[in-house]
Amino acid sequence: MKKIVILGAGESGAGSAILAQMHGFDVFVSDMGQIKENYIELLNRNNIKWEQGKHSEEIILTADEIIKSPGIREDAPLILKVRQKGIPVISEIEFAGRYCNGTKICITGSNGKTTTTNLMAHILRKAGKKVAMTGNVGNSFAMAVADGRYDHYVIELSSFQLDGMYEFRADSAIVLNITPDHLDRYGYKLQNYVDSKFRVTRNQTKSDYLIYWAGDPIIKAELAKKHLDATLLPFSDELKVCMSAFVEND
């Protein structure tokens, strides 16, 4: 039985634990802080082993794979030890994506993610679709996948979540805008942050879509350097020519 250790017992960690247990993993959850009572009850109810107030390295470093909370920095001493041992470290989004059978609509950007995610979920619900609003808003993606009732997943993604994604593929990726943010996590280099945001396009094929704001200079410059397989759907509040969507007469 493969052993998965989950670092962080918040919304994403608890959801990952439930999904991992459903799929037959030996699960251990570790949180350096205090775990909220509702998550403790959830873990106990499902007989999942957990600890709080510490990280027991003798347990953690025997994992086959580690799911890391997006709030834990890559340069944290424990993560450095994990990397030295060659243990794969992934995000909750990467893990849950392995078991997701529905359409994944992934929204990122420096600003406007939550508003757009809420709007997208609202539109789909009004259309009568079975939709989960997940990621940085709503329930965790892993918990929604474990629930199993949904055909569409609208996922708000931060750069920290994107950093732990490797094989995950978005059916539709939406990049709203990119402005300098969280640069302390990216070596104070804007390009590192841009690279993180564009991980949302990773593994996309011609049958997938990248929707983006054509008026963003950073997005425009990045697209000029890349040869993406996804079908590009630009939108604009000013341009009309070659736009998939634009504003006219308000």
Note down, in words, how this protein is organized.
This protein has 250 residues and is of the alpha/beta class. The chain has two domains: 3-90, 3-Layer(aba) Sandwich (Rossmann fold), CATH 3.40.50.720; 98-246, Mur-like, catalytic domain (UDP-N-acetylmuramoyl-L-alanine:D-glutamate ligase). Helices cover 33% and strands 22% of the residues. It contains ten helices and twelve strands. It has helices spanning 11-22, 37-45, 57-60, 77-84, 92-97, 113-126, 141-147, 159-163, 190-197, 217-225; strands at residues 3-7, 26-31, 49-52, 65-68, 89-90, 103-108, 131-135, 152-156, 172-175, 209-213, 231-236, 245-246. The N and C termini lie far apart (58 Å). The mean pLDDT is 95.
Q: What order do the SSEs take from the amino end to the carboxyl end, as H and E?
A: EHEHEHEHEHEHEHEHEHEHEE
Low-confidence stretches: none
With strands numbered from the N-terminus, the spatial order across the biggest sheet is 7-8-6-9-10-11-12
What percent of residues adopt helix (DSSP H or I)?
A: 25-40%
- CATH secondary-structure class of the largest domain: Alpha Beta
The number of domains: 2
- Distance between the amino and carboxyl termini: 58 Å
Largest sheet: 7 strands, parallel
- CA radius of gyration is 19 Å
Q: Say what the CATH topology of the largest domain is.
A: UDP-N-acetylmuramoyl-L-alanine:D-glutamate ligase
What is the strand tally?
Answer: 12
Q: What is the residue-averaged pLDDT?
A: 95
Any guess at the CATH architecture of the largest domain?
A: 3-Layer(aba) Sandwich
SS-based class = alpha/beta
Proportion of residues in extended strands? 15-25%
The global form is globular
CATH evolutionary superfamily of the largest domain: Mur-like, catalytic domain
Number of helices: 10
Subunit arrangement of the protein: single chain
